Amino acid sequence: MTSKLLWVSFILAALILSVTFSLQPDQQKVLLVSFDGFRWDYLYRVPTPHFHYVMKYGVHVKQVTNIFITKTYPNHYTLVTGLFAENHGIVANDMFDPILNKSFSLDNMTIYDSEFWEEATPIWITNQRAGHSSGAAMWPGTDVKIHNSFPTHYMPYNESVSFEDRVAKIIEWFTSKEPINLGLLYWEDPDDMGHNVGPESPLMGPVISDIDNKLGYLIQMLKKAKLWNVLNLIITSDHGMTQCSEERIIELDEYLDKDHYVLIDQSPVAAILPKEGKFDEVYEALAHAHPNLTVYKREELPERWHYKYNRRIQPIIAVADDGWYILQNKSDNFLLGNHGYDNALADMHPVFLAHGPAFRKNFTQEAMSSTDLYPLLCHLLNITGMSHNGSFRNVQDLLRSTSPGALPPTPGPTLLHGSVKPGDDESEESYAYFLGVSLGSILVIVFFVIFIKHLIRSQIPALPDVQAEIAQPLLQA
Ligand SMILES: [Zn+2]
Q1: pLDDT tens-digit profile of 122-165?
Q2: How remote is the CA of residue 37 from the centroid of ligand 1, in Å?
Q3: Selecting from 3.40.50.720, 3.40.1260.20, 3.30.1360.180, 3.30.420.40, what CATH number does the domain 249-334 have?
Q4: Mapping DSSP to helix (H, G, I), strand (E, B) and coil, where does residue 349 land?
Q5: Residue 335 pLDDT more than 50?
Q6: Contact at 8 Å (CB) between 376 and 267?
Q7: Cα 453 to the chain's mean position, in Å?
Q8: Which of 19, 180, 211, 237 could form a disulfide linkage to 38, CB 3.0–4.6 angstroms apart?
Q9: How far is the CA of 337 from the centre of ligand 1 (A)?
Q10: % of the chain exceeding 70 in pLDDT
């Protein structure tokens, strides 16, 4: 009888504990999503109910200052390293490294050379070194071998793979027997269409609606897989987009002899490598060539761009004003939308939303830097990050609680403050959680008491027999 009671008590105690812990959200699952070229204000161009659903039940940062140059590869690498381009080494989509004597080009797909990526260590590698697993669906750089590693699971880049198939892989990895805790998901639009038609075109409306539907599909699939409430979803992008025009073209051939330099990267930041002995000639010819073109010697680039101290940054950098386009000559490819401009321009800024157990609800913050995402990710994954240029303090207000994640080393630039103070929603949330756990516990205790009473009563009729059995030998004796 006593041992039965002990066993029942033990099972019930285990039950109570498991119920309590299953109610505790897992703060360590993170899915980072990038919709390439999703400008921060696309949210308001057409109805975007799924983006607004995430904002209502999660957090929203209005202005994210990304890094210069505001191009795809430099910014995607910043999101996963927390470093400025001069520190992570992916300084452009098209680069030349004079020491390696090698080129890196998105157009020629010569991006798989590990050496270009190894000035930094992306978060999937640090996550795996901490004993976790990562999965990447086409995120730039995740199919490149970096420091002898790939993500635990990844999809080799293939733009023809549908969004639905990418989501299916991510869900499969999060729900497998050895689940990932970090997922990275990338989609090419609205960047592609933004380039083709220009961001101010009415044709962008359906494109933004389509992205909103894709987000809706992702939410639906996460709910179906029972991941929606246990996973921290971060939706962001690498850059925005600005409207260009054939009326605003700067043609280098008008000012420079093309035999005197190599154009490593084109528009809107022309990376110019003068041929031997031609530096002064090229610089002087270009310096005052056009009122909408600012020309810098590498060492004179503004400090705020953090775009100077890397050998892959070319000796002369010419930056076009917002909406202006640099071409070597007019036979080169021109696009109606472009990005890459000064990262102080709002049109270059990406969207930023997040939802999940770690994040507050219906909370808006004015500003952050894209370098701040990295320490946030390290905190959520509970890993110690590498050195970076971000600040965890800039993003900690987004969180319901700042414990117990490990804080990576933070050089700590100027603090930015959220416009909204810690709100009532968080306390409401905590109250509901406390109430739920309390009621659950009371119910379990009541059940336990009734069960024990029932057990004791059901044992009573058996007692005489037991006594009889015990008494038997005595009688025999
Ligand atoms: Zn991009």
Answers
A1: 999 999 999 999 999 999 999 999 999 999 999 999 999 999 99
A2: 5
A3: 3.30.1360.180
A4: coil
A5: yes
A6: no
A7: 54
A8: 237
A9: 12
A10: 78
Helices in 324-405 by DSSP H: which ranges? Answer: 373-381
Task: Using the mean position of ligand 1's atoms as its centre, give its distance from the Cα of residue 68 in Å.
Answer: 13
Distance between Cα 132 and ligand 1 center (Å): 28
Give distance in angstroms: CA of 281 to centre of ligand 1: 34
54 with 353: CB under 8 angstroms? Answer: yes
Q: Which amino acid makes up residue 57?
A: Y
How far is the centre of ligand 1, averaged over its atoms, from the C-alpha of 71 (Å)?
A: 6
Would you call 72 a catalytic residue per the annotation?
Answer: yes
| 432 or 461: which leads in pLDDT | 461
The pLDDT of residue 14 is 52
Structure confidence by residue, pLDDT tens digits, 365-417: 999 999 999 999 999 999 999 999 999 999 999 999 754 444 444 443 332 22
CATH class of 24-242+344-421: alpha beta
Closest CA to 242 of 311, 158, 115, 343: 343
Measure the CA–CA gap between 306 and 294, rounded to whole angstroms.
Answer: 17
What spacing in Å lies between the alpha carbon of 332 and ligand 1's midpoint? 20
Element (H, E) at 296: strand 293-297
Check: CB of residue 273 under 8 Å from CB of residue 262. yes
Question: For residue 20, is pLDDT > 90?
Answer: no
Specify the pairing of strand 182-187 against strand 134-137.
Answer: parallel
Runs of H (alpha helix) within 163-203:
163-174, 191-197
| Helix (H) or strand (E) run with residue 281 in it | helix 279-287
Given a contact cutoff of 8 angstroms between Cβ atoms, the answer to whether 159 and 188 are in contact is yes
Give 459's pLDDT tier (boundaries 50, 70, 90). low
For ion ligand 1, residues whose CB falls within 5 Å: 36-37, 72, 191, 238
> Contact at 8 Å (CB) between 143 and 157?
yes
Point out the catalytic residue in the list 65, 72, 78, 410: 72
Question: Residue ranges of the domains in the chain?
Answer: 24-242+344-421, 249-334, 424-459
Ligand 1 centre distance from Cα of residue 461 (Å): 78
pLDDT band at residue 225 using 50, 70 and 90 as cut-offs: very high
Q: 295: which 2 tokens? A: 């020309």
Q: What is the pairing mode between strands 249-251 and 182-187?
A: unpaired
Task: Give the integer Cα–Cα distance in Å for 420 and 416.
Answer: 12
